[in-house]
Amino acid sequence: MELNNSVTVLLPGVVVAVSAVLVMVVDLFLRRKDVLAWLAAAGLLCGAAVAIGQWGEWTGGAAVWRVFTGGLTFGGREASAGFAGMIGHDHFAVYAVVLFCAIGVLAVMLSDEYLARRGAARGEFYGLLLLIVTGMIGMAISTDVIAFFVSFELMSLPTYVLAGYIWRDERSSEASLKYFVTGAFSSAILAFGLALLYAATGATSYAGIAAGLARLQAGGLAADGFLVVAFVLVVTGFAFKVSAVPFHSWAPDVYEGAPTPVTAFMATAVKAAAFVGFAKLFFVAAGAQWADWGHVMIVLAILTMVVGNVLALPQRNLKRMLAYSSIAHAGYLTLGLIAAGKSGDTVGVSAILFYLAAYALMNLGAFGVLIWIRARRSYDYSLDGLAGLGRGMPGTAILMALFMVSLTGIPPTVGFWGKFYLFTAVIQAGLTWLAIVAVVMSAVSAYYYLRVVWYMYFREAEEGAAAEAPAEGAALEAGAPSPQAGVAGAVVIAGLGVLIVGLLPGPLLDAAKGALRLLVGG
Amino acid sequence: MNALFWWLLVAFLLFSIGAFGVLARRNVILVVMSLELMLNAVNLALVATANFRAGAEGAGVLFALFIIVIAAAEVAIGLAIVIANYRNRRTVQVDTYDELKG
Amino acid sequence: MSWNDQIGFPVLSVITFLPLAGVIAILLFGRGRPQVYKVIALVVTLAAFALSVWMLVVFKVSQAGMQLAESVSWIAPLNIRYGMGVDGIAALLVFLTTLLGVVVIIASWHYVKDREMGFFISLLLLEVGMVGVFCATDLFLFYVFWEAMLIPMYFIIGIWGGPRRIYAAIKFFLFTLIGSLLMLLAIIAVVYYVKDHTGTLTFDIQSLSRVVYSYHLQYWAFLAFFVAFAIKVPMFPVHTWLPDAHVEAPTAGSVILAGVLLKMGGYGMLRFCLPFFPDAAVAFVPWVVGLSVIAIIYGALVAMMQKDLKKLVAYSSVSHMGFVTAGIFAGIALVGNAAGVEGAILVMLSHGFLTGALFLMVGFLYERTHTREIAEMGTLGKPLPVLAGFFLFFSFGSLGLPGLSGFVGEFLSLYGVFEYSRWMAAVAAIGVILAAAYLLWMFQRTMYNDRGDDEVKPSFPLKDLGAREIASLVPLVVFVIWLGVYPRTFLEFLHVPVQTILDRVTPSLSDASAGMGALAQLVDSVRGLF
Amino acid sequence: MEGTAYLQIAVALITLLPLLGFIVTLLFGKRMGRQAHIFPVAMVTVTAALSIYGFVWAFGHRDETFVWNAFDWITAGQFHVPWGYQVDTLTGIMLLVVGIIGCVVHYYSIGYMHGDEGYYRFFAYLNLFMFAMFVLILADSYLLLFLGWEGVGLCSYLLIAFWFRKKSASQAGKKAFIVNRIGDFGFTLAMFLIFVVTGTLEFTGVFAAAEKGDISAGITTWICLLLLTGALGKSAQFPLHVWLPDAMEGPTPVSALIHAATMVNAGVYMVARSYPLFVQSETAMTVVMAVGIFTAILASYIAITQNDIKKVIAYSTISSLGFMFVALGAGAWVAGIFYLFAHGFFKGLLFLCSGSVIHAMGGEQDMRKMGGLRTKIPVTFWTMLVGALSMVGMIPFAGFWAKDEIVGATFIAGEYVVWVVAMVTVLLTAIYMGRLIFMTFWGETRADAEVQAHIHESPPSMTVPLVILAVPAALLGLVVGLPPEGGWIHGFLEPVFYHPHHAEFRLLGEGGALMLASLLTVIVGLLIAWWLYVRQTEVPARIADRVPWAYRASLNKVYLDDIYAVVPVGATLGFAQWLWDVVDVKVIDGVVNGVAWLWGRIGDGLRPIQTGRVQSYALYMFGGMVVLVAVFAWVWGS
Questions:
Q1: C473 assigned to some structural domain
Q2: DSSP string of C360-400?
Q3: In CA terms, which of A49, A76, A347, A440 is 20 to 30 Å from A383?
Q4: Taking each helix axis from N to C terminus, what angle separates A432-457 and A318-343, rounded to the nearest 10 degrees?
């Protein structure tokens, strides 16, 4: 029975992990490498399907994740816990799993052409990518810091590799090294923080930590320096992964240097996983202390919004600009955590869940457009290279404009709803001034997002620029169906998503709310 | 002051030494080693807690085991990345890797 | 789901989305066939105009509240509805919008050479947004239209504009965006205030405007809404986007910008600032009227010094729109003075006709002389008598000649200000003198001779207005005269809705005067945010 | 009421026909070419007949006021103004003046404008003017009056700048409109004030309220002074008179019709119309009189040295209008309107004659280049002489009776200073009008040979109107103004100015003495003029040398234009330039662009932080942790 439950909970992760192995095995025996992408995508879709199938299981059940005195409890039923309480499944996790798998699928679509053109090994790539997703799923379902940390590392380590996947490229390998050093550093810090928490509370399970903290608080010890250090170390681990200032510095370099599909994946999925995983950890394990956490996070959030947006202004390399923009978005997302902490309400968290999906759509789209342009002609990711795109590649330009508008947060796009929901949470938490800061910063961000649009439409291309063939054109296999279709498909899917969800955000809003549904009924 | 405090203090010192190494050493190999040191400090803290803290769950040891495995994987990946960089640049001085900036 | 019971089919939605249908038709059938897409655009806007006229006909002027209402659930989790409906104010503005929509299509027939289809698509999309703003009865829907409209305008200025078009486009965009983002926060605050206090989450404007909000919320939220609308109007000192946008925008863009977009500011104040936050609105009256009066004088004086024809007209808009804000806010002070408010709305309409027309004239001139520098013109009345005649007509309309549209509104809104404060009205009335000064000076320097006697400047042959151009102007001429001679047609639409607004504002007068000064209140209110 | 149905139709047609004429001529006139005048002239002729009918109606119903509200014009909140017409005896007089002179000028223009490239345009504008002027005098509310008021301003603008390629013409047109706008500023505020205190703008309602004493004395004074501001602009009184001399840039028929006979009287008419308000305010009356007399003497003083024939007449117009204001201010309301009535004819005549002279001289307007025209253009000479004598106030011409009543009224009212100044003005008037006649028609012709050869009498279409106008200019006083203070016109206007103010005239009493004094002054003046400009033609130059400042002040119009160019105009332009250059561009836009620039600079400035070296990144993280610990400790500590 116990095992049975564990398997149920783990099932999406297992499916994805098995797919990873399968992809690598098939890679060994099959010459046609384009099958691998299909296989990986199928694995991810199966994982998502399994998760969706589990969605209905817990409606109306009792909540296990008893959290803090304000009454915030997280969904999930005891019956769904597995492996000695190390993992637990709930709507929250299901939402996250589906999100990760969906991002994974789009990332696979974006990657295939890129890899094929450069002659890079695709089997390992997809294998690693699927393992990363497995790690993310683990983060979402963990209810124990051990499981959490292992999942965290399962996600992180392959990411270092993917960042340097085109290892002969100096920039890619440099990105990889920087990511590795800072990442491992932060992992160690996180681990030490978790160890100190364990030392303070004597427990590794979220529930145990919460209970321990409650005991400490009752004894008047909760505020001592020991715990402060422990909390800060954990927050550091979180801030690093979501690239919050001042733990962000790796992000621009890594995003710029890493292969573009990997950048897209990191900017969306890894960030999402970090938010999902840490949100669960923070709220379930330390929810009672969250009001105070929130105040600390305000500093982070403001710094992140300001520095991310301001540093994006002078960037003329689009990948780098998007990196800073992704930092800025991390700042907005952090507002959701703060709001949830301040108000003791779950709106902030569901706002984060919604925003993550929205952000994934538009950001994957934007990176996808870059990949697509690069697949069609020589392009160096510079702003100037976009000049005249509105005339040369009208469809692409329209989509790019759509993604930029969405990133700015203008209706009727999904990015607007993300911001709206987030600001709603912040204002409801009584932090209107913080929302004003965010609003001012998003006005600043409009400048650099719209600059992309104006380069595409208001400027003319230099003579002959568009006519050049792609730089790395040799390595395409003869006879294989054009992998460009994958890129185009991903971009179009993202574009449609941005628009359709922008016009009819109801279902996604419902899902994001429903992910925390059990809280309400108790 | 109980024993746990001293163990944790040692762990903290180890951790700090590791952190200092990461921040200060210019040789990438040494940086990677410093990272390992930090993880080992964590292990020490975990094991010490599991042993000396009253009422602690035994899971600390389990955690330490996991971290040992993770550390191994990390070293393997780290060194591979270092080698890739060395091939491109012919140096392991970490501060020379600054093509990406701004 | 409920379509309106008045006429049995969703006329407002049809008006709003007809242009969108046009866009789709253009994309399907019009590629590479200029005649086809132009005709589609014309037919679609004409149909929208015809429908909006019909809407005015079926509109019941004596009936309060939103008419021709439609309401369909849109985003259920937040109880956001797709709600459309018009009161008299909105109905007139929809009419103005669709009229100018037709006019700009005609006027742009040969205007752009580059990416012409995109231009027409942008114009049509713009019309969707504009009509939507006036029709929306759901706060959220309003906001969506309000913001969505920015994009086509950004493109119109940025792609088909003048040499500094990028600067102008981004300035336009950022100014408006900052305002509307603040407004978004206030919207959220208002909606959730209602939810916290009544338990229902609703974005319905009518319901929200019946709630009494706390002073704390009112003061800052009023300011947030107000800033958004003030930027759009634009009021001094947040007006500087306007001249740049006007100068760089293509003719059609300027016409729409001046004719409709600016009206959204005034409309927003009437629809939101006053009924939602009556106490704050009343408390801010001296400030707003003061700023408006400054805008009237300032805009006129600065207009006088302009060397660029379009900039001159742009600053004249700042001046004229000052009458709008002054009239609205003076109207709610002390007595609940409907004349001022109705006058302000008439100014909006009239300014739409007149300034739209003036921008058309400038555009026609530009097509002929390839310059907008006043100094490079002169004696154009000789080769271009018809153009000069229209130009003269609209200039005099704009300077408020009785019998033309500009006068009635300005007179009424000035009267409203006069009832509120005599000396402010006296200062504002100086703006009327200045209007004569800058417009006649402009006319003299362009159409009459200002370059030494008997020197006929343009060496190339100039063609006078053609039939198409005249066709785009004639409707405006008709309405300018109509509004000047028989404004009753339009005023009838305004009595009931304006009274509704004033009824909402007036009961709170005593409260506000008992409270602290507006600024002290505001400081208190803002402090509450932290 | 019996007969009002016809009157209603007449009134409607009086305003509609010229409007129709305007529209038709504007649309089709160009195609009609030389025949463009037919339709508008026909319209005006019919209108003249109808306006005579209006006068006749008023003649027959002098105690009635016909009011007809055609439709609701503006209704907003409490504010309500109908589009309504009214006819009473005052309107009747105005109808007569405007209708007849308008019609005559139209006929005159057929000849005068012959061959002008803007022929049709001219007639279109004239018709538009007739429309606006009729609305002005028929209006039954201040607001509709204001519509006509601004409408005639528009036409004045269009017609002054008729030859728009001349910079001076376009300049003058603009100036006229803007100066009038300054007056209208006061008018507008007056209307607001009236509405605020009485709740209506219709004459009947306002005056009823005034008579009931609903308006406090202070407010009444304010209303009157503000109305007067409007009148100062339209009727070219100091300090807003500066536009009228420049307005002579327009074609001469325009000067005759608009800038002498009709439009400029609108201010006088408006003040007279507001009689029930003005009589309640001593202050306002005094101001009216003071402004009038000052303007009268000022204009006369300037007129003496002007060399442009039309400018002289223009200043004489300003002076005459000043006299009308003096009359109103002195309480001699009927005398004021009587003078307006007479002035319309003789001043119109003078302008048309001067037009005929200019026509004869081939466009020359400088009197120094004329002379000796007496025999060459006899019809013009004789009619102009009639006009001039009427103007200076020579018995028994029309001007004499009216002017004498005004001058006498000041004396009787006890305003002796005003009376003295008025007498000086009469003297000056006689001198400069004499100067005009003598310089133009006496002596040797000073024009060059080519022009001389060309001098001819004008065609009948021009001379006939002269003769037609000469008749009332000569005889009007005898018909309507005799006996003084008790003529027909006094009785006729009594219903409007219902507090009969005028003392009975006795030839052998005060009245007779005053009349004699004024008559003697005129004769002396004429003699001086004859002596200076016919006998001793070098004397004027010697006088000018003796008092150069006085001469130059007069020649330069007391430097008012120059002062205005500096103080209101220059200061406004300077201020506006400062607002634009400094406030708008530098301050406001500077802040806007500065904020944008600052963000960019901050971004640039922060870029070096991103060193590219991974260990500095790790260091930031470490530093961040320390900061977080500090913040956290502070949060928990507090």
A1: yes
A2: HHHHHHHHHHS--BGGG---TTTT-HHHHHHHHHHHHHHTT
A3: A440
A4: 160
Chains that touch A (3 or more CB pairs under 8 A): B, C, D
- Euclidean distance between CA atoms A349 and A341, whole angstroms: 9
Taking the domain B3-96, which CATH number applies? 1.10.287.3510
Q: Where are the beta strands (DSSP E) in D88-159?
A: none
- Provide the pLDDT for residue A5: 59
Domain count, chain C: 1
Cis peptide before C237 (omega within 30 of 0): yes
Total Cβ atoms within 10 A of residue D556:
13
Half-sphere exposure in the Cβ direction for C252 (13 Å, CA): 30
| pLDDT score for D487 | 80
Q: Which helix (H) or strand (E) holds D313?
A: helix D309-329
> Min CA distance, A20 vs chain B (Å)?
18
Taking only the tens place, the pLDDT of each residue in A414-472 is: 999 999 999 999 988 888 889 999 999 999 999 999 999 989 988 887 765 555 555 55
- For residues A60-74, give the mean pLDDT: 33
Q: Are D129 and D259 in contact (CB under 8 A)?
A: no
Contact C250, C155 (CB under 8 A): no
Q: Tell me how far apart the alpha carbons of residues D13 and D15 are, in angstroms, rounded to a whole number.
A: 5
pLDDT in tens, C78-96: 888 999 999 999 999 999 9
- Indicate the residue type of D265: N
pTM: 0.90
- List the 100-159 stretch of A: residues with Cβ below 8 A of B: 144-146, 149-150, 153, 157
The letter for the amino acid at A267 is A
Nearest one of C79, C123, C82 to C103, comparing CA atoms: C123
D621 touches chain A (CB under 8 A): yes
pLDDT at position A60: 38
Provide the domain limits for residue C329.
Answer: 284-493
Confidence of residue A73 (pLDDT cuts 50, 70, 90): very low
β-bridge partners, C81: C73
* Partner residue facing A314 (CB), from D607, D616, D618: D607
Q: How many residues does chain A have?
A: 522
φ and ψ at C68, to 5 degrees?
Answer: 55, 35
Report DSSP letters for D460-499, one per residue: HHHHHHHHHHHHHHHHHHHHHS-STTTSHHHHHHTTTS-S
Residue in C closest to D182 by C-alpha? C433
Whether B60 contacts chain A with CB within 8 A: yes
Structure token pair of residue D26: 């504007």
Predicted local confidence at residue C508, as pLDDT: 53
CB distance from C415 to chain D under 8 Å? yes
- Sort strands C80-86 and D79-87 into parallel, antiparallel or unpaired: unpaired
Task: Return the residue matching tokens 């209140």.
Answer: C521
Among the listed residues D235, D152, D137, the one whose alpha carbon sits nearest the alpha carbon of residue D186? D235
Three-state DSSP class for residue C83: strand
The pair phi, psi for residue A109, each rounded to 5°, is -60, -40
Q: Judged by CB atoms within 8 Å, which residues 11-30 of B form the interface with D? A: 19, 22-24, 26
**ipTM greater than 0.90:** no
3-state secondary structure of D250: coil
Burial class (CB in 10 A: 0-12, 13-18, 19+), B89: middle
Tokens of residue C75, six digits: 């985003």
Residue A367: Cβ-neighbour burial (10 angstroms; 0-12, 13-18, 19+):
buried
Identity of the residue numbered A143: T
Domain ranges of chain A: 2-518
Query: A40 burial class (0-12, 13-18, 19+ CB within 10 angstroms)?
Result: buried
CB contact under 8 A, A192 and B35: no
Give pLDDT, residue A1: 34
